[in-house]
């Protein structure tokens, strides 16, 4: 008796609240936005901050200016020179301290370099946000050139080791090569197939932290060259030496006896070390890594002595930091490049 | 092969100068090994340094046999400009277990600093004239010399497999 009643759908006019963040696809840091949307239009936006807060203003009330300087680099971590500049400028203006002209010029140079660095690092994520992903990587390459200059300013002339002193203290690796001694175990010992590649020993003469830094960067470039040459020239053939000490699979071999089945502490027969001794070494990135091995006609070695490069390179630290400023200790320690895993073993 | 014919170069040179030593042959890579007596070690170490061995690569100690001697091993090399086959030697100094004391070579090769401390820590060999001979890896109050073959780990009661 009645027809169907057509219900007309009524568009609901409620606004939608959407949360955006705190993580973003580019390097903005953590910012949480609460957006009120009407379809595609944004009606309101409420940013929620203070996810990354460290209460630096409260901390500043308990620190002198010099003590506070490391904190300021954490404000704008892409243009760090500006944060340090304002931290220094504000008390200077307060007390009316005169800055010499040369210092002022040096500050301007550092600040403008930092400005370039910051704009470069803005450009990358900005283009990535819009959609062009590649420039993100190119800007870091340009920033590297600026980093080199900043590094040299901090690190030059710190922690100088002479050539003979380096040899006497038993240093090895980049520490030795940065003091003018061209000693690289890959060329001296000729192990593996390093002599088939065309590469140079990276070395510097000055012996300070900047020299060690340059040696390590140069070594990375040489390694890339070596890898490319190796990939081109890799020979065919087997990669295992199947003749070495296989264990006996014959019918009544002693490895299938009662003792080997049920007493689990007996190791399975594998490589046996004869009663000889040997000091083998490689050129590890930190220096000369050596093993002094005394075999014992069994599968276990009699003595396995590890010569860690970090342990021996660390010996020179007390000598280097005497009469240096406290802040230079970290520079020198970093340039020695130790890792406590091998120092302590 | 580095050495086609292995010759006791250093041993012959020491004999020429009438320095008491004993040649222990060669290790698997053909490095000459010499044994020096404890009493002569400090003077012969200086002689080696003057002869050109300016790099103390590695100093370690090992236990020759349970109840037997303790051996202190020094690997010396000559670092010179442009050598691709440097001269090396391995020197061993043996001391009895009861009162092991060896003169320190810290004042000749500085790289013996931490290494001799580690040898003292692990095996108990006292290095005379070492400026700060104290334990380096184990805590200072530890009793016992861990790397000796007759060392019993305290409070470690896992059932050992009798060999």
TrEMBL record, chain A:
Q: Which domain of life is it from?
A: Eukaryota
User: Which SUPFAM superfamilies does the entry link to?
Assistant: HydB/Nqo4-like
Query: What Gene Ontology terms describe what this protein does at the molecular function level?
Result: NAD binding; oxidoreductase activity, acting on NAD(P)H; quinone binding
Q: Where are the transmembrane segments?
A: none
> Entry's Pfam families?
Complex1_49kDa (PF00346)
Q: Where is each NADH-quinone oxidoreductase subunit D domain found?
A: 155-345
Please give the GO cellular component terms listed in this UniProt entry: chloroplast thylakoid membrane
Q: PANTHER family in the record, alphabetically? A: NADH DEHYDROGENASE [UBIQUINONE] IRON-SULFUR PROTEIN 2, MITOCHONDRIAL, NADH-UBIQUINONE OXIDOREDUCTASE 49 KDA SUBUNIT
Family, as annotated: Belongs to the complex I 49 kDa subunit family.
Q: What is this protein called?
A: NAD(P)H dehydrogenase subunit H
From TrEMBL, chain B:
Family per UniProt? Belongs to the complex I 30 kDa subunit family.
Question: Does Transport count among this protein's keywords?
Answer: yes
Name used for this protein in its record: NADH dehydrogenase [ubiquinone] iron-sulfur protein 3
Catalytic activity from the UniProt record? a ubiquinone + NADH + 5 H(+)(in) = a ubiquinol + NAD(+) + 4 H(+)(out)
User: Gene3D superfamilies under this entry?
Assistant: NADH:ubiquinone oxidoreductase, 30kDa subunit (3.30.460.80)
* Role according to the record: Core subunit of the mitochondrial membrane respiratory chain NADH dehydrogenase (Complex I) that is believed to belong to the minimal assembly required for catalysis. Complex I functions in the transfer of electrons from NADH to the respiratory chain. The immediate electron acceptor for the enzyme is believed to be ubiquinone.
Q: Which PANTHER family match?
A: NADH DEHYDROGENASE [UBIQUINONE] IRON-SULFUR PROTEIN 3, MITOCHONDRIAL, NADH DEHYDROGENASE UBIQUINONE IRON-SULFUR PROTEIN 3
Keywords (A to Z) from UniProt: NAD, Translocase, Transport
Classification via SUPFAM superfamilies: Nqo5-like
InterPro entries attached here? NADH_DH_suC (IPR010218), NADH_quin_OxRdtase_su_C/D-like (IPR037232), NADH_UbQ_OxRdtase_30kDa_su (IPR001268), NADH_UbQ_OxRdtase_CS (IPR020396)
Q: Where does the NADH:ubiquinone oxidoreductase 30kDa subunit domain lie?
A: 35-153
Protein's UniProt keywords contain Cell inner membrane:
no
What Pfam families is this protein classified in? Complex1_30kDa
GO terms of molecular function = NADH dehydrogenase (ubiquinone) activity; oxidoreductase activity, acting on NAD(P)H
């Amino acid at each position: 008796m009645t027809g169907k009643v057509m219900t007309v759908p009524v568009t609901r006019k409620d606004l939608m609240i959407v949360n955006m963040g705190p993580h973003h696809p580019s390097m903005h840091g953590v910012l949480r936005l609460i957006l009120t949307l009407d379809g595609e239009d944004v009606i309101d936006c409420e940013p929620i901050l203070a996810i990354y807060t460290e209460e630096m203003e409260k901390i500043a009330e308990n620190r002198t200016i010099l003590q506070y300087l490391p904190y300021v680099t954490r404000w704008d971590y892409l243009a760090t020179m500006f944060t340090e500049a304002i931290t220094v400028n504000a008390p200077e203006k307060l007390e009316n301290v005169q800055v010499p002209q040369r210092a002022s010029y040096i500050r301007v140079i550092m600040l403008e370099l930092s400005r370039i660095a910051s704009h470069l690092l803005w450009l990358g994520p900005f283009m990535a946000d819009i959609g062009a992903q590649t420039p993100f990587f190119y800007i870091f390459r340009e920033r590297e050139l600026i980093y080199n200059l900043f590094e040299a300013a901090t690190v030059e002339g710190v922690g100088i080791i002479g050539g003979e002193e380096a040899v006497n203290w038993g240093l090895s690796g980049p520490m030795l090569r940065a003091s003018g001694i061209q000693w690289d175990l890959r060329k001296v010992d000729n192990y593996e197939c390093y002599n088939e590649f065309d590469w140079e020993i990276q070395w510097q003469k000055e012996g300070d932290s900047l020299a060690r830094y340059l040696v390590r960067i140069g070594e990375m470039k040489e390694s890339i060259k070596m890898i490319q040459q190796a990939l081109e020239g890799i020979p065919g053939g087997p990669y295992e030496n199947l003749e070495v000490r296989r264990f006996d699979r014959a019918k009544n071999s002693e490895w299938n006896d009662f003792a080997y089945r049920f007493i689990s502490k007996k190791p399975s027969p594998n490589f046996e070390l004869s009663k000889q001794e040997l000091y083998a070494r490689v050129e590890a990135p930190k220096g000369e890594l050596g093993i002094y091995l005394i075999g014992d006609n069994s599968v276990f070695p009699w003595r396995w002595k590890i010569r860690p490069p970090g342990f021996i390179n660390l010996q020179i630290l007390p000598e280097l930091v005497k009469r240096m400023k406290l802040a230079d200790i970290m520079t020198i320690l970093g340039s020695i490049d130790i890792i406590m895993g091998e120092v302590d073993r | 092969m580095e050495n086609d014919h292995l010759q006791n170069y250093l041993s012959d040179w020491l004999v020429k100068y009438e320095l008491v030593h004993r040649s222990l042959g060669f290790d698997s890579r053909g490095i000459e090994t010499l044994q020096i007596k404890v009493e002569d070690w400090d003077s012969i170490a200086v002689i080696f340094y003057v002869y050109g061995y300016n790099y103390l690569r590695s100093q370690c100690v090992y236990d020759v046999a349970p109840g037997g001697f303790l051996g202190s091993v020094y690997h010396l090399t000559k670092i010179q400009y442009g050598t691709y086959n440097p001269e090396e030697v391995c020197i061993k100094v043996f001391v009895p277990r009861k009162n092991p004391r060896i003169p320190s070579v810290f004042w000749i090769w500085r790289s013996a600093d931490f290494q001799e401390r580690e040898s003292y820590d692990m095996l108990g060999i006292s290095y005379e004239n070492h400026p700060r001979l104290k334990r380096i890896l184990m805590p200072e109050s530890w009793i016992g010399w861990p790397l000796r073959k007759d060392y019993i780990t305290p409070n470690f009661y896992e059932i050992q497999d009798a060999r």
